[in-house]
Structure formats: structure tokens, C-alpha cells
Write a structure and sequence with these properties.
With 187 residues, the protein is of the alpha+beta class. It contains two helices and eleven strands. Pfam families: Peptidase_M23.
């Protein structure tokens, strides 16, 4: 009888562990691959902030050049959070624009004009012209200057004057781990 209770208790514990791990590894619904651009190489090796940040607001391309939309994605990140370059490149700009700290990186080997990532609001720890590697810290999330309702970093991508979805830079395995699967528990 005692062994039977132990097996039931262990089974419950294993199921609880499976559900917890599944919940932690499942991507938020906003992280689907829809809206990514096939012309953008998935050369990113890391998220700009955190391991799998919550996307507060996704990419919403404008219908016209000056039309309404959202020309990037907003990633939840507390002030002081390190901001990393998603791919290797050269810092094209590190300074203030309209009162906000901005860092822009031209990505290496992505054509002419190159793909350019932007991050704001960021307190830069790099200077214009510096070469950066994928995953290298380029600054920290600034305490002020965010347009989000909760602290965030705005991550953008463009080629020349054309804005693109920055999530396109990340390979599918970094965006989405696929569907969750429950395995049988053998007793």
C-alpha cells in the first residue's frame, strides 16, 4: 500500500515537472514566424535582451512610407539590462536621437546597403566605428525614453530606407522550440 502511494506521488511530481518545464520552454504566442522576411538571413545568434524576452508589441509594417505602423519589436527588459548585438557588425551610431539613447549596428556580410539593427532606449557602452561580435554587450537598457507601457527595448531592422521585421534575423530554433509533447509515465 505504501509503495503504491509512493508511485502515485512520484507520478504526480513527474507530471508537475513536465508541465512546468513545458510552460517555461513554450514561446509566447506572439513569437510565431509569420511576418518574417525570407530575404533576411537568419544570422542572429542571440536575443538582444535576455534569453527569451516577452514581445510586448510586434512588427507592424506601415502601408505607406510615412503611414502608421510599428517599425520594430518591443522586448520586455528592465532598466540596466545588458543589450547585446544579435550578430557581428560595425557600430554605425551610438548616441542620442530625440532625447533617447540609440545604438545602430551595420551587420557584417549582409550586402550593400547592409542590414542595420537599432536598439533604443540604450545607454551605449560602445563607440561609433567599433567592431562587435554576436552576443557582445553594446549597452544597457536606459531608465527613461521608452515608448512602451512597461520597461522595454525597441529593436529595429532596416536595409537602406526599408524597414524589416527584426525577428527574421533569428533562426527558427531560437524563436520557437516547436510544439510541446507529453511523454507517457511508465510505472
Amino acid at each position: 500500500m505504501r509503495a503504491k502511494r509512493c508511485v502515485r506521488g512520484c507520478t504526480r511530481l513527474v507530471l508537475l515537472l513536465v508541465f512546468t518545464v513545458t510552460a517555461l520552454l513554450s514561446p509566447p504566442p506572439s513569437l510565431s514566424l509569420t511576418g518574417t522576411d525570407a530575404t533576411v538571413p537568419a544570422l542572429g545568434r542571440t536575443w538582444p535582451v535576455g534569453l527569451r524576452p516577452l514581445v510586448q508589441r510586434g512588427w507592424e509594417p506601415p502601408e505607406t512610407v510615412y503611414g502608421p505602423g510599428h517599425r520594430g519589436v518591443d522586448l520586455t527588459a528592465a532598466p540596466g539590462t545588458p543589450v547585446r548585438a544579435v550578430a557581428a557588425g560595425r557600430v554605425a551610431f551610438a548616441g542620442r536621437v530625440a532625447g533617447k539613447g540609440v545604438v545602430s549596428v551595420d551587420l557584417a556580410g549582409t550586402g550593400d546597403p547592409p542590414l542595420r539593427t537599432t536598439y533604443e532606449p540604450v545607454t551605449a557602452s560602445v563607440e561609433e566605428g567599433a567592431e562587435v561580435e554576436a552576443g557582445e554587450v553594446i549597452g544597457t537598457v536606459a531608465a527613461t525614453g521608452s515608448h512602451c507601457t512597461a520597461p522595454c527595448v525597441h529593436w529595429g531592422l532596416r536595409r537602406g530606407g526599408t524597414y524589416l521585421n527584426p525577428l527574421s534575423l533569428l533562426p527558427p530554433w531560437l524563436l520557437n522550440r516547436g510544439p510541446s509533447r507529453l511523454l507517457p509515465v511508465h510505472t
